[in-house]
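testing teh design pipeline on a random one, pls ignore if ur not involved
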C-alpha cells in the first residue's frame, strides 16, 4: 500500500482476539507500513477499535477518547480475580438483586468518582504491570484513581445476569464498575459480556467487522473504508490550506502564513493551543499560530 495513504479505519473487533492481533491481521492483509489504535479492548471484549493508518498515527492523542460507550452484562453471585469470566472465583453469594434494588443505586456511580482498577489491568505497580503480578499469584493492592461516568442505564435482567449501558470518560474500567455495583447491592458480580459501541466519532453502526474487512480487495479498502484524517477529530481549531507551495514548505518543517477560512471551531477541547491544517480533508500538520504565522510541531505529509 502507498505509504502516503493516511486516515482512519473504524474496525469492529470480535471477541476472543487481542487488539494487537486484530491490528496485525489488517496490517498483513493490506501491507500497511504503520498502524496504531485508539484504546485497547480486552481480548474477550468486542466492539469499536479506532485504527490510524500510517502518519495518521500521530493524531491518535487527539481522538475524543473522553466519550466512550459500552454495553455490558453482569453475572451476579460470583466475584472473580479479574472481574470478568476469565478469572478464578474468589467469593460467592446467594443473592441476585431485583430490578428495584438495581435502579435505586446505579445513579450513585455518576460523575467523578474514585475507582480502583481491576487487578488484571495494565496499571504499573513498582514498575511491573498489575496483570503480570496477578499471574504470578502475588498479593498486591492498587490505588484508586479519579474517573468520570456521564450516563448509566439499566437495560434489564435475565435469570442471574443484568445488562447495562454506560457513557464514560478516558481510563474508566467497566469491570471495576460491575464489581462495585455488585458490592453495593450486597452481593458479588463480574462482567460476562462487554461491547464498546462508541469512541469519540467512531460508532459501531459505521464500523466494519474484522472478518468482513479481511475478505475485501485492497482498492475497495482504500476507497470505501478509510475515513479522512480530519473527519474523526472533534473540537479542534482547523484551517484548510489550498496552495501546494504551502505543502512544500510544511514538508520541510517551515512556518507558513495562514489567511484562509476556519473550517472547525473549537468546543470544549483541552488542546485549544494547537492549530491543525488540512488539505483536501487530510490533516497535513499541527502546531501553533502566532497572528497569521503557523509554526508546525508535527508534519504528516
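output:
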Amino acid at each position: 500500500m502507498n505509504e502516503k495513504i493516511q486516515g482512519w479505519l473504524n474496525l469492529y473487533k470480535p471477541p476472543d482476539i487481542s487488539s494487537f492481533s486484530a491490528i496485525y491481521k489488517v496490517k498483513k492483509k493490506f501491507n500497511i507500513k504503520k498502524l496504531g489504535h485508539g484504546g485497547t479492548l480486552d481480548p474477550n471484549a468486542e466492539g469499536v477499535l479506532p485504527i490510524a493508518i500510517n502518519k495518521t498515527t500521530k493524531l491518535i492523542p487527539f481522538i475524543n477518547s473522553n466519550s466512550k460507550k459500552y454495553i455490558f452484562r453482569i453475572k451476579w453471585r460470583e466475584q472473580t480475580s479479574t472481574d470478568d469470566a476469565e478469572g478464578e472465583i474468589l467469593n460467592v453469594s446467594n443473592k441476585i438483586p431485583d430490578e428495584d434494588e438495581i435502579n435505586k443505586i446505579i445513579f450513585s456511580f455518576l460523575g467523578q468518582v474514585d475507582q480502583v482498577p481491576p487487578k488484571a489491568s495494565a496499571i504499573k505497580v513498582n514498575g511491573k504491570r498489575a496483570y503480570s503480578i496477578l499471574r504470578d499469584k502475588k498479593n498486591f493492592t492498587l490505588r484508586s484513581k479519579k474517573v468520570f461516568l456521564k450516563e448509566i442505564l439499566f437495560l434489564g435482567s435475565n435469570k442471574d445476569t443484568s445488562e447495562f449501558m454506560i457513557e464514560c470518560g478516558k481510563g474508566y474500567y467497566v469491570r471495576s464498575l460491575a464489581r462495585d455495583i455488585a458490592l453495593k447491592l450486597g452481593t458479588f458480580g463480574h462482567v460476562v459480556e462487554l461491547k464498546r459501541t462508541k469512541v469519540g466519532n467512531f460508532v459501531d453502526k459505521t464500523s466494519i467487522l474484522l472478518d468482513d474487512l479481511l475478505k475485501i480487495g485492497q482498492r475497495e479498502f482504500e476507497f470505501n473504508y478509510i475515513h479522512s484524517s480530519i473527519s474523526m477529530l472533534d473540537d479542534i481549531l482547523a484551517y484548510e490550506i489550498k496552495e501546494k507551495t504551502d505543502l512544500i514548505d510544511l514538508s520541510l518543517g517551515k512556518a507558513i502564513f495562514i489567511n484562509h477560512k476556519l473550517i472547525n471551531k473549537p468546543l470544549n477541547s483541552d488542546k485549544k493551543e494547537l492549530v491543525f491544517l488540512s488539505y483536501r480533508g487530510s490533516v497535513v500538520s499541527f502546531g501553533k499560530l502566532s497572528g497569521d504565522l503557523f509554526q508546525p510541531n508535527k508534519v504528516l505529509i
